[in-house]
Amino acid sequence: KGTLANPEYARKGFHVIRTWASNLAHLKRVQKYSYDYTIAHKFTTNGIIKIENFIPNFEEFEEDIQKEFKNFPTVVHKRPDNICSSQNKYIAPILNEVYQQIVKAQEIENVLGARLGSPIRRFFTTALLSNTFYQRVYNTPDDNDNQKNLHVDTFFPALKFWWFSQDVSEDDGAFVYVEKSPDQTTEYYNWLYEQSIRICEKNYDDWRLRDHEEGSLRVSEAELERMNLKAKPVEVKKNTLVLGNVGGFHGRGNTKKPFTRNAIHGSIRLTEPYLF
């Protein structure tokens, strides 16, 4: 936060340096601790991983799963009444079983280099247990949702994941991701340097909103084009687990018609992103 509040730090490139250093640390972790480097490297560079047919025999439970989702409110964020907890498992027993499978997913452990030892592994397990919830997003066309502005969540690689119980197409407002944006280039660092100075001088475009100043930097389509990047919808089939590196650019998709998207959603961030 200090590097986006101090103009002198920004002009010296401190925010760019810490972004570079945290990405290097992540790369070192996945090189050292991942048991499938191909998957981990894809998360680090491409940024998006889709695992289809995640739950075996999904068709047997599909109807009951859709009914269980209706036990939860239509809200975007985690609340006590939609968190995947021991209390809520009684009103959604089948969804709770899906959640347990997500917690055990080797792909999640792999992309984060979670084999750093038992203390770190416990951290990941605790994060999964406390920060995963039943998400029901009611999406409407052109609703001025600021999450539809393409952005990064933070300056270092971090994981968000969604398990989708239904097909989600571009017209339904599928998650949008800018592939290869975590594989940071000179063009990206030049953009980051300029934006960090603008933030410190409070001279950024109004449409980027306060999220930009708080470190969740917003990017325009024209800026992406100058970085040779392009946003694409992540369309999914039902029973797909999506892992997204939200240190890369992403956003909520705009829908062509009102649509409720049901998912089990969670996130994990390291508390010490420079550790390797």
Give a short overview.
This protein has 10 helices and 8 strands. The chain has helices at 7-11, 14-33, 37-45, 58-69, 93-103, 106-111, 118-130, 186-200, 209-213, 221-226; strands at residues 48-51, 132-139, 159-164, 176-178, 231-233, 240-245, 250-251, 259-268.
Please state the oligomeric state of the protein chains shown. single chain
- Element-level helix/strand string: HHHEHHHHEEEHHHEEEE
Mean pLDDT, all residues: 92
Strand content: 15-25%
**Overall SS class:** alpha+beta
What is the spatial order of strands in the main beta sheet? 1-6-3-8-2
**Counted beta strands:** 8
Helix content percent band: 25-40%
Sum up the overall morphology in one term.
globular
**What is the number of helical segments per DSSP (H or I, 4+ residues)?**
10
Distance from first to last alpha carbon:
22 Å
Main sheet properties = 5 strands, antiparallel
Flag low-confidence runs: none
Gyration radius (Cα, Å) is 19 Å
